[in-house]
Amino acid sequence: YYIVGGYFLPPVSLTAEEANALALIEPLVIRFADKSIQANFGTALSKIKQVLGQTQRRNLEQIQSQVAHYIPDDYAHLLPSTDYLTTIQKAIIEQRILRIEYVNLKEENSSREVEPIGLTFYSLNWHLIGWCHLRQEYRDFRTSRIQSLKLTMEPFRMKEHLSLNDYLRDLEAMELRLRQGD
User: H or E segment at 21?
Assistant: First the structure.
């Protein structure tokens, strides 16, 4: 075995509070992230546990056993069951187009090419925000309504995009105008 030249992995050093924060977040990841993120979080947490001292590891495991979540059965069907979030994150980072098969609220199917600008979580669902080539505008796609998703090798066609924060700010302003009757 040998280490490639220039490779350096700094030691992981967590305070007790940082380790406890991870334990507190774990149930939320299990409930509100999709399968791909759950798997990545689980392996990351295992790696962190391996490098913790014995006392820190024991404390982390104690906190994990004493933190729980409860979601009524009425909401269980709303929770993510896909495994798209990791792929969407990759598309955002690499600025590559996604091809999706999507079912809208009217149960209509469509094929879309999307340039993703971000992910947001609201109403117990993850939402992909991106430029839709079919509609020629930014759209909000609930990830639980995506039937299939493929990361293409195609780079974004648009040179400039709104930031996710700008999109959400514009959306909030529009909703406020609608409530005020503008």
Answer: helix 16-32
